[in-house]
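To: structure desk
From: M.T.
Subject: fold request, one chain
Message: Could you run this one when you get a chance? Sequence is below, nothing fancy, just the single chain.
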Amino acid sequence: MAEPTDMLAREIDEELRRERLLQLWDRYGTYILAAALAVVVGVGGYKFYESRKAQANEAASTRYIIGLRDFAMNKPGEAQRALDDLAANAPTGYATLSRLRLAGYDQAAGNTAEAVSAYGSIAKDSAVDPILAEYAQLQIAMLKLESASFTELKNRLTPLAAERSAWRFSARELLGMAAYKAGLVAEARSHFQRLVADRTARRGLPSERVPCWRCWPKGSRPARRLLPQRSPNHLPSLNPPRKTRPRPRARPTRTTRETRIVVSQDSTRKPALGRAGTCVRPLMSAVLLLCASLGAGCGDSMPKLQDLNPFAEKEVPLQGKRVSVIQQENITTEAVSANRPIVLPQPHANDAWSQPGGTATNAPGHLALNGSVKSAWSANVGTGSSFYGKLTASPIVYDGKVFTLDAAGKVTALSASGGAVAWRVSTTPPNEKDQEGFGGGLAADSGRVYAATGFGVVVALDAKGGKKLWEKNLGSPLRASPTAAGERVFVVTKEGKLFCLSGS
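Reply: Done. Structure tokens follow.
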């Protein structure tokens, strides 16, 4: 009664567990569905916002390229209107780029006052990226290098010359020029010496290519290896360089941290949604599907909360009379034996044991044992258990022979009457060691003996002569004996995979 009692206990535990889960679902199921819906709607809304933002950036990128192309094609009026519209209505990144472009064109055209005013508005705008705001300050200093006092330039450039600034090298160079222009030779020399000695400075700065020789005494000039062969009297021009017009095929690069510039070669092409947009459709579809399942219809088609319970029992009850399993606890062997006699089939003597369990069903029936059990003969069947391998395969009896599989993968056939060796075959594959093939077992059916080995190989042998009929490598060690029945061989690998092979 131990096994029925264990089964009853498991059934009761499973039923109690399911009832507890049902109670939890009835109590919190609505909140769980609401939370899931909120997550889906939130993620879908965020992805939709990202998609719209990417569309706006791509549209602004196309308009920005068109404006630059108009400038290159000598259409200043159209380019001015396009960049003014971008500066007023585009996202922050492209708006800042457009404002910088307009200020740069004013600077190149000689409109210094308009350029300084434009750069000043950019530098004071809190919505502009700090790096671009510092760049605007640097441009103002360059434009006012001839007209402003040294104190004004120093106040404007000192924050830009700090170590954290991305424009520190250009700012230090302008500080040196302003100091030299104001007659402060020692201070100018310190700025230029700092630039020349800084190994992290960008190669090609004007102060590095043509240093201000007048700032150094003759005995303390920098080494010649740091300076090219240039005229000592050649000084860099203090006038701001004229900006050339942009090339028609120029592609803007990453200039702001909050905006990614994506430019299409074809300005008339409709911007794509991008990676963010592809996630919106399935998420919105999921939201619509969930809303439809919760709110579609007002009659019987309206799903109930219990129908959405994942813990509810979905199985259809079996047809027929249901008998309570609890009544089985009161049944005893005395009551069974008193009401009905125990009848066994006629015992029979078997002459075969073709599977480790006697037959393929592991139920050989009511067997007869004639006489007492005694040793009839013994024989050596090969390698036994050792440090390298274990002998685990049980022998089988089939067609008047005893078949064994030793620890080295050798199948031996012996006469059941006297133990004489009929044949012996090794199942070890080439380039394999015998000791590594332990495990597996034997089964016989339809005149064939099937051997499953630790090498992951199933071998079919002729029961009479031991001829190898076929061989199948399953790629995983086999530790259990096979089962053979009806021209089929069933084997289980070490990983628990079941294979059914054709016996013929």
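Reply (cont.): The radius of gyration is 46 Å. Let me know if you need anything else for the meeting.
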